[in-house]
Design brief:
Radius of gyration: 18 Å
Number of strands: 0
Distance between the termini: 29 Å
Structural class: mainly alpha
Shape: flat
Length: 126
């Protein structure tokens, strides 16, 4: 059950990052904190997306706390790296985020994924 909570945390944090990125692209630039409050209180799609992204972060943390109660930290923590892979792939796939494919980034994500496998695979006993 702990791995379920960890993966829910990863999915929620990935969703939060993608949603907040889109919100930042659509919200107007502000130069003063008062302008930020005005932009948020207009209930524009960007403002709503920002609030949804922040709520997803909160829910992600709640799931993470549940995961940490059930999974040893040395196994749970590397699972957070899955969000790097998900966010990278989703950002390229979703056209409104305007991310470009890069071979170098793909290589970096591949290294993260291989590292995740090495940490999470069961070890051999001597």
């Amino acid at each position: 059950m702990g791995y379920f909570w960890a993966m829910m945390s990863v999915l929620l944090v990935s969703f939060a990052q993608l949603t907040m990125k889109w919100a930042m692209v659509t919200l107007p630039l502000v130069s003063h904190p008062d302008e930020l409050m005005t932009a948020l209180l207009t209930f524009s799609p960007g403002a709503i997306a920002l609030v949804i992204g922040l709520l997803a972060y909160v829910c992600s943390m709640a799931c993470w706390f549940m995961a940490l109660r059930r999974v040893v930290l040395s196994k749970a923590y590397p699972l957070l790296s899955v969000s790097y892979v998900l966010v990278w792939a989703s950002a390229i796939w979703l056209p409104w985020l305007h991310e470009k494919f890069s071979t170098g980034k793909m290589f970096g994500v591949g290294v993260i994924f291989v590292g995740l496998l090495l940490v999470c695979l069961p070890g051999r006993k001597p």
